[in-house]
Amino acid sequence: MNQKETKIINGAKHILLKPKTYPEKEMILRSESFFNQMNLRRSVREFSSQPIPKELIEHVIKTASTAPSGANKQPWVFCAVSDPEVKAKIRIAAEKEEKESYESRMNEEWLKDLKHFGTHVQKPFLEEAPWLIVVFKKAFDYDQEGKKLQNYYVNESVGLASGLLITAIHHAGLVTLTHTPSPMRFLSEILNRPDNERPFLLLPVGYAKEPAYVPDIHRKELKDIAVFYE
Ligand code: IYR
Asked: Cα dist. 138→41, 108, 112, 174 in Å?
């Protein structure tokens, strides 16, 4: 059937979608195989300093930016840092905050919950990883005249984009860590970001240092995370 390429729906211009689909058996295999692939993803805290081409970082950022967002405002900015001086500044500032956190901000329960991970104040990965991607959320935008424009569901939108970002990094064959030094204000200062952008997440990206060891943790089973109403 020859369908029109565009259509006005509720006063808004729509374009024809040609969804990619597969036979059901193939879809089941594809979904299982994608799970098996994603189930190999692990957060890594020790990185090799082997360089990664900028082109690859551009691709994973573009993938992140395919995420849905409130009113399609795409309220995110990805700052990709490979400059060793900037990485060193970030490490110094992050470790200063982490020291404060480990020594006084985090309570006993929190420190106990982190015991399995062996995390500590030192963050050498902030210098060793060839790239740091700092995800900023845009609380609002500015138009040409400097007037404030609203964004919607900013945390949800940027969370979704970050999920796609770690998926794309894993799919490319690299590793990352969803790092949230807290508070993260120092990132706005070091990277000279405008006041409508707030740091959301910091991801070192690269190859794992070899040999790589990760905490002995496990994913919950389907029965513990899913409820089916059939
Ligand atoms: N930001 C600190 C502490 C930390 C907190 C959580 I919740 C983690 O899952 C891991 C670490 C750090 O990076 O060490």
From this structure: 28, 33, 34, 27
In the chain, domain spans: 65-209
Atom of ligand 1 nearest to the CA of 98: 2
133 SS3 class: strand
pLDDT for residue 1 is more than 80: no
The CA distances from residue 149 to 1, 145, 154, 230, in Å, are: 42, 11, 13, 43
- Locate 159 and state its tokens: 């969370």
DSSP 129: S
The CATH T-level fold of domain 65-209 is NADH Oxidase (3.40.109)
CA 109 to chain centre: 26
- Please give the distance, rounded to the nearest whole angstrom, from the Cα atom of residue 74 to the centre of ligand 1: 27
Six-digit token pair at 151?
């964004």
pLDDT band at residue 201 under the 50/70/90 scheme: very high
pLDDT of amino acid 2: 76
Under a CB-based contact definition with an 8 Å cutoff, are residues 138 and 150 in contact?
Answer: no
Nearest CA to ligand 1 atom 1: 181
User: Burial level of 157, CB count in 10 A (0-12/13-18/19+)?
Assistant: buried
The pLDDT mean for the chain works out to 97
Is 121 close to ligand 1, i.e. is its CB under 6 Å away?
A: no
pTM (2 decimals)? Answer: 0.97
Q: Does any ligand 1 atom lie closer than 6 A to the CB of residue 209?
A: no
